[in-house]
Amino acid sequence: MTRPAAGSNTTGITLSDNQRLNWLRLIRSENVGPATFRDLVNHFGTAEAALAALPELSRRGGASRRIRVSPIEDAEREMVAAARAGARFVALGEADYPAPLRHIDGPPPLIAVRGSTAAFAAPMVAIVGSRNCSIAGRKMATILATGLGDAGFVVVSGLARGIDTAAHEASVASGTIAVFAGGIDRLYPPENGPLLERIVAAGGAAISEMPFGWSPRGRDFPRRNRLISGLSLGVVVIEAATRSGSLITARLALEQNREVFAVPGSPLDPRCEGSNRLIKRGAALVTEARDIIDILKPLVGDLFGRPFDGEAREPIEERPGTVAAEPAENDRGRILAALGPTPVEIDEIVRHTGLALQTVYLVLLELDLAGRLERHPGGKVSLTG
């Protein structure tokens, strides 16, 4: 892993081809999510060393069977598939990685990007809403996306039918980013293929953290929604029913300290019940793009040209030669006794047990890889089942 030379106008790390392959293998291995990935590399120094440690870690954590480690052949095939699709993998900490994503819980270590990463440097706003939207809702999405684009914002959405499609179509020329719930080669819905090609040709981008060939399932959409909100300074909701994925995006935005906006709708239209409720609970009411711009302008500067400017988590940086000592058996027992079905902060476990932070993290990794640990927002953890 290298860093740019002094005086370079880029920041961050740069992975070698071999490191990128190992990062891909690690994040595709069983029971390895973004937070587990970070802890593994921090403990073992490199993704390569972490890969070698996975079977023993899961055994010590009490796994009932051998953990599946992603084969190098699978990662190589995914790299080839990405190249054929005109996509590439960008790592957390690299200059082209979207800066706002570094500020969320569990940022994906790798994202597949098709199109230009230049759009990531602009301030972004998400527009989400009903797939089965009204004519008025679609028109409102078009008006807001056009106004935001004219003001220098890039529009983020999920390329779904309805509101998402209208928002993307209105911002193709000014810049838009589509976030996939499945692999970046698994467009959903398929009829938006021509729109995706227009987005990419115009300098926008499509991104995904999911494997190539992965068809999206219901539970993948909330995971995708955290990226939509995480990329953005604010989320605009248009026509969201009470049990809407758009409300999940709004909730995630609040957890990520983003602004939430909502367009009011008829109280007689069930498609607007959720978005109207957001306004009652404090979301900013929106009737024109200026309502959004006036609130977000102080966050990005007069020219909207400044990158996202919050406190980011440290990038994952490989440090070859790092050695993590194996915890003593009684240490594991003390940590297990401190855990239960109720989520607790890791710092609480450290204080309660009196053990070193590194020891606690390593035991939690063992439990995580064995499928016995559940991670929660805010860095909390609990035992499964």
Task: Please give a handful of descriptors for the protein shown.
alpha/beta, Arc Repressor Mutant, subunit A, 14 helices, 9-stranded mixed β-sheet, 3-stranded antiparallel β-sheet, globular, 385 residues, disordered N terminus, Rossmann fold
What's the helix and strand layout?
Elements: H1 17-27, H2 34-44, H3 47-60, H4 72-84, E1 87-91, E2 110-115, E3 124-129, H5 135-150, E4 154-157, H6 163-170, E5 176-179, H7 193-201, E6 205-208, H8 220-231, E7 234-238, H9 245-255, E8 259-263, H10 273-280, E9 284-285, H11 289-300, H12 329-338, E10 344-345, H13 346-353, H14 357-369, E11 373-376, E12 380-383
Parallel strand pairs: 3-4, 3-7, 4-5, 5-6, 7-8, 8-9
Antiparallel strand pairs: 1-2, 2-6, 10-12, 11-12
Helix pairs in contact: 1-3, 1-4, 2-3, 2-14, 3-14, 5-6, 5-11, 8-9
Describe the structure.
By secondary structure, this protein is of the alpha/beta class. Among the domains are: 187 residues, Rossmann fold, CATH 3.40.50.450; 49 residues, Winged helix-like DNA-binding domain superfamily/Winged helix DNA-binding domain (Arc Repressor Mutant, subunit A). The protein contains 14 helices and 12 strands. The longest helix is centred in the middle third of the chain and has 16 residues. 45% of the residues are buried.
- Tell me roughly what share of residues is in helical segments: 40-55%
Main beta sheet, described?
9 strands, mixed
Tell me the name of the CATH class of the domain at 114-300.
Answer: Alpha Beta
Based on Cα principal axes, name the global outline.
globular
CATH architecture label name of the domain at 114-300: 3-Layer(aba) Sandwich
User: In angstroms, what separates the terminal alpha carbons?
Assistant: 39 Å
Major sheet strand order: 1-2-6-5-4-3-7-8-9
In CATH, the topology of the domain at 114-300 is named Rossmann fold
Number of helices: 14
Unreliable runs, pLDDT <50, ≥5 residues?
A: 1-10, 302-312
CA radius of gyration: 22 Å
Structural class comes to: alpha/beta
Portion in strands: 5-15%
Element-level helix/strand string: HHHHEEEHEHEHEHEHEHEHHEHHEE
Mean pLDDT, to the nearest integer, reads 90
Secondary structure: number of strands: 12
